[in-house]
Design a protein that fits this description.
With 214 residues, the protein is of the alpha+beta class. It is 22% helix and 39% strand. It has 5 helices and 13 strands. It has a 6-stranded mixed β-barrel with strand order 1-3-2-6-5-4. The chain has a 4-stranded mixed sheet with strand order 10-7-9-12, with no helix packed on it. Strands 8-13-11 form a 3-stranded antiparallel sheet, with no helix packed on it.
Length: 214
């Protein structure tokens, strides 16, 4: 399990710039029946930990000189310009209490419909909302796309291999990933449909004026 050192933060608001100038970022830890504590953590250490563990992962967080506590990397905010982490929320885990988090989906394999039929793969979601005990938490759920063999085939949440102790909170019928038809084929179908529609339209009856001209 990854670990991270932190210090109690005494700077707030605009004064947070002072800790950032020294290589730290503001953070906070909170939890059920736990008094929230403002923190500061090393930006370099946090980025390393986040790269190794990722969001929705348990880590040992040491605050000042106290014994480490188990927390969840609950929310990470990034700078929109530099993409560097600028703030972190930690959630203190309570033994025996289920937690609700979003876990990443990791796609692997090769879709035959793409390779053999020229289909286009699309990803509808890349995270799942789950609920479980801390000890049953998984960092990622794998999605094997090698089962996408035909055009228009899809994989739904209910098709995924989810550990028995994890409850999925999203709609199990929701599409995770699928295959769409090549654009040229879609356009061809549209053209055929327009032609069929025109052929089915009733032809205009000649008016009296038309008959007189004849």
């Amino acid at each position: 399990m990854a670990s991270l050192n932190s210090k109690t933060r005494k700077s707030f608001g605009r004064k947070n710039k002072e800790i950032k100038d020294h290589g730290f970022i503001p953070a906070v830890v909170y939890g059920h029946d736990f008094q929230s504590i403002p923190l500061q953590v090393s930006l370099a250490e946090m980025e390393k930990t986040f790269q190794e563990a990722g969001e929705s992962t348990l880590i040992d967080l040491k605050i000042d000189e106290n014994s480490p506590i188990k927390v969840l990397i609950y929310d990470v905010q990034h700078d929109p310009l530099t993409d560097k982490i600028r703030h972190v929320d930690f959630y203190k885990i309570k033994a025996g209490e289920k937690i609700e988090v979003e876990t990443e989906l990791e796609f692997f394999g090769e879709a035959p419909a793409v390779k053999n039929l020229g289909g286009i793969i699309f990803h509808n979601i890349d995270k799942l909302k789950i609920k479980c005990l801390p000890e049953d938490l998984v960092h990622k759920i794998e999605v094997n796309i090698s089962g996408l063999e035909t055009l228009d085939s899809v994989i739904r949440i209910k098709d995924l291999k989810i550990p028995a102790k994890i409850e999925v909170l999203d709609d199990r019928e929701e599409v995770v990933v699928g295959i769409s038809r090549p654009q040229a084929e879609v356009e061809e179908k549209t053209e055929v449909t327009e032609e069929e529609k025109a052929a089915e339209e009733p032809k205009e009856e000649p008016t009296e004026q038309t008959e007189e001209k004849k």
